[in-house]
Design goal:
alpha/beta, globular, binds D-xylitol-5-phosphate, binds zinc ion, 7 helices, about 30% helix
């Protein structure tokens, strides 16, 4: 059976002056997931949007993929669950101790939503492997987190391949998502390497979003 690729537009690249209209445009374009980039200006060098903003589209009928680029993500999980998050992904670099990572995985799972972990491009891939049996998704950053509109870092392709082999040889259920610099060319590299979910911001923000989502799904 052929794999169905999911596309998750990143709201970060859309017009913040008309957020609800933009969320509806994303839904009408038949996006699979809505990717929400939460940045605190500490974990990354940028501040995006947070809880009160997400509240405005909490009832939007789309799967909400929350990407936390913040320190102390455990303090904010309850709030994002209240805002109808379907998946919460946090960064491994946010913690020093393995037990803290495992505690947060457990906490998110107890909320009966999906849990993901992510690593920055320069973090060794080995760090993430011990958690793959316990999570629903691993997010491979293909740019340095913080800003939309950057170019895809090539080493992401090999990282996806390695993760794919690791996950599938062990029969784990973990999905692989890629985030940063995704367009038709880089999406193809990621899909061939075994990715399941493509996040795309700047590539999808224009009025061709519906056609572009279909294109990405058929590469
Ligand atoms: C970067 C964010 C990405 C970003 C993707 O820190 O996690 O989700 O918005 O934007 P593009 O597709 O423009 O690289
Ligand atoms: Zn993201």
């Amino acid at each position: 059976m052929e794999k169905v690729i999911k596309v998750a537009p990143s709201l970060l690249s859309f017009n913040f002056g008309e957020l609800n209209k933009e969320v509806n445009r994303i839904i009408n374009a038949k996006a699979d997931w809505l990717h929400l980039d939460i940045m605190d200006g500490v974990f990354v060098n940028n501040i995006s949007f947070g809880i009160p903003v997400c509240e405005t589209f909490k009832d939007a009928k789309i799967f909400k993929d929350v990407h936390l680029m913040i320190v102390n993500p455990h303090l904010y999980v309850d709030k994002f669950v209240e805002l109808n998050a379907n998946l919460i992904t946090f960064h491994l670099e946010a913690y020093k101790k393995k037990s803290d990572v495992l505690d947060l995985i457990k906490k998110i799972k107890e909320k009966k939503i999906m849990v993901g972990i992510s690593i920055k491009p320069e973090t060794p891939l080995e760090y993430v492997l011990p958690y793959l049996k316990d999570v629903d998704l691993v997010l491979v950053m293909s740019v340095e987190p913080g800003f939309g509109g950057q170019s895809y870092i090539e080493n992401a392709t090999q990282r996806i391949k390695t993760l794919y082999d690791y996950i599938h040889s062990r029969g784990y259920k973990c999905l692989i998502e890629v985030d940063g610099g995704i367009n038709e060319k880089t999406a193809k590299l990621a899909i061939d390497a075994g990715v399941d979910v493509l996040v795309a911001g700047s590539y999808l923000k224009d009025d061709k979003i519906k056609e572009k989502i279909q294109k990405l799904k058929k590469l």
